[in-house]
Amino acid sequence: MAQPNIRRLRIAVSGLGRMGARHANHFLHRTPKAELVAAFTPEERELAWARENLEPWGVKIYTDYDEMLKHEGLEAVCVATVTTVHAEQTIKAIEAGKHVLCEKPLSTKLDVVQQVLAAAKRQPHLKVMCGFSRRFDASYLSAYALTASGSIGRPTILRSQTCDKYDPSGFFVAYSEFSGGIFVDCNIHDIDLALWYFSADPTSTNKKKELPKVKSVVAVGVTALEPDLAKHGDVDNGVGVVEFYDGQIAYFYSSRMNPPGQHDSTEIIGTKGKLSVNANPTTGLLESHLSTGIHRDIPQTYYDRFEHAFVEEARQFTDAVLDDKAVPIDLESSMEAVRIGVALQESLRSGKKLWFDREGKRVDEDGQARARL
Amino acid sequence: MAQPNIRRLRIAVSGLGRMGARHANHFLHRTPKAELVAAFTPEERELAWARENLEPWGVKIYTDYDEMLKHEGLEAVCVATVTTVHAEQTIKAIEAGKHVLCEKPLSTKLDVVQQVLAAAKRQPHLKVMCGFSRRFDASYLSAYALTASGSIGRPTILRSQTCDKYDPSGFFVAYSEFSGGIFVDCNIHDIDLALWYFSADPTSTNKKKELPKVKSVVAVGVTALEPDLAKHGDVDNGVGVVEFYDGQIAYFYSSRMNPPGQHDSTEIIGTKGKLSVNANPTTGLLESHLSTGIHRDIPQTYYDRFEHAFVEEARQFTDAVLDDKAVPIDLESSMEAVRIGVALQESLRSGKKLWFDREGKRVDEDGQARARL
Amino acid sequence: MAQPNIRRLRIAVSGLGRMGARHANHFLHRTPKAELVAAFTPEERELAWARENLEPWGVKIYTDYDEMLKHEGLEAVCVATVTTVHAEQTIKAIEAGKHVLCEKPLSTKLDVVQQVLAAAKRQPHLKVMCGFSRRFDASYLSAYALTASGSIGRPTILRSQTCDKYDPSGFFVAYSEFSGGIFVDCNIHDIDLALWYFSADPTSTNKKKELPKVKSVVAVGVTALEPDLAKHGDVDNGVGVVEFYDGQIAYFYSSRMNPPGQHDSTEIIGTKGKLSVNANPTTGLLESHLSTGIHRDIPQTYYDRFEHAFVEEARQFTDAVLDDKAVPIDLESSMEAVRIGVALQESLRSGKKLWFDREGKRVDEDGQARARL
Amino acid sequence: MAQPNIRRLRIAVSGLGRMGARHANHFLHRTPKAELVAAFTPEERELAWARENLEPWGVKIYTDYDEMLKHEGLEAVCVATVTTVHAEQTIKAIEAGKHVLCEKPLSTKLDVVQQVLAAAKRQPHLKVMCGFSRRFDASYLSAYALTASGSIGRPTILRSQTCDKYDPSGFFVAYSEFSGGIFVDCNIHDIDLALWYFSADPTSTNKKKELPKVKSVVAVGVTALEPDLAKHGDVDNGVGVVEFYDGQIAYFYSSRMNPPGQHDSTEIIGTKGKLSVNANPTTGLLESHLSTGIHRDIPQTYYDRFEHAFVEEARQFTDAVLDDKAVPIDLESSMEAVRIGVALQESLRSGKKLWFDREGKRVDEDGQARARL
């Protein structure tokens, strides 16, 4: 085939683990306007995969991240390594003048996220986005359009859950040391959705779509199947409630033990209606009518559920860079999601309800009480 | 027709308002083993209804509750007046030696409920039950049987909501002065379900089906449509979380503004499975496929949704009395539901998380912290 | 209780088998305006049931149908015996001056049905109705209201099925000798629905709600599980198509082998929309989320699915008699349903497509061809 | 990017109308192992589209089909022109030594389809497949796997429908002159599914997965919205029944007037269970709870519903060629689908039921009757 006479985004993927390999495939085969030119991994097993699956397509493989950043013509990086190096790699890429799509979360630590933001602000011409995949799912996008258009009045209450199929390997127990805990690892998606839908309030006179301001957070949890999680201050089932100033509430549930598979669902409840995403989960359109009743399956993993959203994320990021327009998720919002997730996890651990003033500063309950006078 | 040669329970209904009239009909026409012999109401409009609809069937109408209690042969009373006199009438009936089925709640005040329990304990041969109708719904009953049989392992998390269709008349605003607030008026059903399902834990070594013990409660809420509710410390949307000792959590949502109608749903989440009641609400089995999409209706009112449960409640109460067996809902549990509802409402008003020790005594956060050491 | 001072319909039930006992209960306990005064059965087992369940309520038991008809004050009879004596008992009751609610079908033989109609016409003051229970189901009633109000334009195509859970006892094999075959026994309900919905055509200029006129019928079938059905010219799975004059088509499926239970569903397809009844069957509002997927049950029997419709049928029949108004289902329509069912069964047996002229007379294909010129 | 060092199938697309443009995109951007090297269209508007959307990617555009076949290195052709030239182009491509994926149907005329098969047989090393997209849909594939594995016993009855959203432009009226009629244009998909699922019979001793043999077909229809269809012997709503030898029946419905959108559904009914595909249609996982009830959308077009199936079809065809394995749909089956569709359309027009012997020859009813003796 002749070389396409098309302006395509030259992108690299960093990290070729489970999600990294998928991102590589999405940019290589499912994002027509992107060209996967390089990939980085230091892992031998991932390298072997890359040699078989990427190299033949002309993708250059690197075992040194800094070297990869110097790849000729490289314009953008998709950071999909382990969470602990997300921030460092993102900052390095920004400093090398690359656009960045980083897997969520930027970091499980708020101060580290702030460093990423600071780096991004120093290079305002670069597109830097944290990939909250759920925002690119067709059903969530439709719900956003309906919310923004006023179909449900003022979005007031949001309920959202992230429930994974139980993984008996114990992976998530060990991982909880680095994951930031269930609210930062799982419910961060739900928190992000709350920020997204609440800031779409069509009744607001504020046209800037400002983020809602957290007033209080509180969380509880249990270790129903994996008591060892307690070592890291974590649980396998968590319930959290976030109260925002100006009359909006989001409440969340996350679980590591949903038997049939992945069940993530969300309700956006407004003064005139409710939008319900995935109340009635299913893999597809098939039901079996057997002597034991009617049966259906649900997606087994997060990727099974959101594969098309990940592809759409890659496309929208690519378009934003090529067309020099705002990325669909701004970094402030992603930082706020981490801040809320970290606060929920702290509330879980301490048993305390945490309070914030309108500027986002922690206040004690009495300060809060005074503020209300 | 010859007089039936059947032992039937001679019952009276007190209060013939919206629910009272329905109870009267259930005992008169839909509970074969009961005989509605009397009814009481002081309200002129209700009296007119009774003269037309009850008297011709041989039901004696009273305008004085105490007189009604003296009705010859009367064995039981269904108390369905306004909440504020539930307790007083129940106690009087008990003292007059009558079995009592009382509409929920016994009272919105915990000390008053305790008086009812004390009265009932003094007459242990009488059946006294608070009517939590949802427990008699076929789907909830099936969920209970599956929970008790171990299908979902240990019931660990319960999510439950009571969402009413918005009533623009403002009735519930005025009513909030007496209702005890949204957690006592609406979520009391959900609280009762939590007590019911959690005490069915098949993995418990405790065979007494003890009630789970509350450790903490916390609640928040907003007045999205009816700011006047704030006068009574109430809201039109509330979210509450109840943490129990020994690793169980229930979380609740209630709303007065659900546009399509009544949507009460519950999830009982266990270590091996989840039972979902009414995730996918519908009035019946009809869907309309029109140019605007696919449409279905949901029940408009609580009674539309639970009519058959109310009838079943009447039948099971009648059977319990006639067969001298335990009523399906014990009073201790109903009292506990009020205690939790009142605590949630207090948490909503104060903004504070409330703590309890295993004996049910309020402790402060530090006491709690010490208790955890 | 004092004897009610209420005008109630004094009715008897003939036959106390499975459905007869249910009808007896419906009139005794669930139809306030009816008074079950008598019941007839010659069967010893049914008699024993009646002595235990009916006699104590003051119901007089007869073992002679003619004697029962003479019961003092008797006004109406519900005929629920085996199909083979439906017609004879109905005619006798009419001739004795009683109103009659007869279980479907009046007979499996068209000439016998005609005799019933002739008898009824001789006593035009009596209410005589064949009980097609599905017409009294809430979802079907809503669909009717929507059809008649024009929501779906002109009802044009109707798809309807009656699928029973497989009964390994072989009962229905033996019964096929008398049942008239699967189209007369099962699909007769679906045929009745076609007549009902098509005659509700809101676009018709004919205000008499005339029945649609059959143009052709054709049917095929298989014996998938019970080859012995072939002895009686019957099958365990049948598909039939009925073409009406003026552009309406109904097509049917019936089965004796639906593993999860009873699945009867119907689509009324109009020029502007479709009404779908029970496309998504379920027993209630409960779903189980287990490691094997999501599961729900469906009703096990026809009665499980249509219990409330049977009760409503009893009430509407009672009201029609007491208020002297037309019964909800006219006999002409019920006769037409038998005619179509019998024709489908004949088509199944002969393999031939059968043709009718607008007056309902059989014509051969060539006559049909000529008629179309 | 370096030229991939990967063996990819060099394919061309013929016809760039609605479906052709989609096929071009699928091979260009969504089938990694294929390389779209050429495209043909004589239409000015389609050429303009191709210059903008294909040429920049290195795809050579032809306005002469024969020239395109000579494109250097071309290995395969996807024929997606108007139905009337499907066969001719397919034959030409075969004769030029190209593998062919042809849009359904090969032709609306059986003798023409036979010519295609003859051409294909002369070049047995070439892969020639007619694209019945529905076979590549994930839900239909799961249903196939369950059928073949014995989950539902012997597949005995199949119900399937193809219902399009009403297109008020009248396009399909004009198109009916060439479409072969509703059974050949729409229900051909459903017929193909019947052949597929029935030949998967796991109880069959025949391991060759032979196609089921048609015994009789019969069809009726109406012109509810578009009377002009009658000019071409066509209808806008059709019902057809196909009886196979050895106890299998398929029945079909097709409509051009489904108001909410595209609703294609299928039930495969076996002796031990039923598989239901799309009984409960929906676009995604979103439902709106508004004051008018609960609402959801369904796909608007066939492509909206089956987009991913088309992509999967392109991938599987590509893999079959590259790996030199059998294509997933064999031509005999596709020819049989046309034969049945044409017979149904003839039955619709003549009003007659048509009979076939086991060899597929038409017999008259009496011949049939004799055959049964």
UniProtKB/TrEMBL annotation, chains A, B, C, D:
A GO BP entry is:
NADPH regeneration
Q: Which domain of life is it from?
A: Eukaryota
Q: Which UniProt keywords apply?
A: Oxidoreductase
Q: Please list the residue ranges annotated as the GFO/IDH/MocA-like oxidoreductase domain.
A: 141-275
Q: Record's GO cellular component, any one?
A: cytoplasm
* Gene Ontology molecular function: nucleotide binding; oxidoreductase activity
Which residue ranges does the record assign to the Gfo/Idh/MocA-like oxidoreductase N-terminal domain? Answer: 9-129
Q: Which family does it belong to?
A: Belongs to the Gfo/Idh/MocA family.
Q: Which PANTHER family match?
A: BINDING ROSSMANN FOLD OXIDOREDUCTASE, PUTATIVE (AFU_ORTHOLOGUE AFUA_2G10240)-RELATED (PTHR42840:SF3), NAD(P)-BINDING ROSSMANN-FOLD SUPERFAMILY PROTEIN-RELATED (PTHR42840)
| Protein name from the UniProt record | NAD(P)-binding protein
Q: Which organism is it from?
A: Neocucurbitaria cava
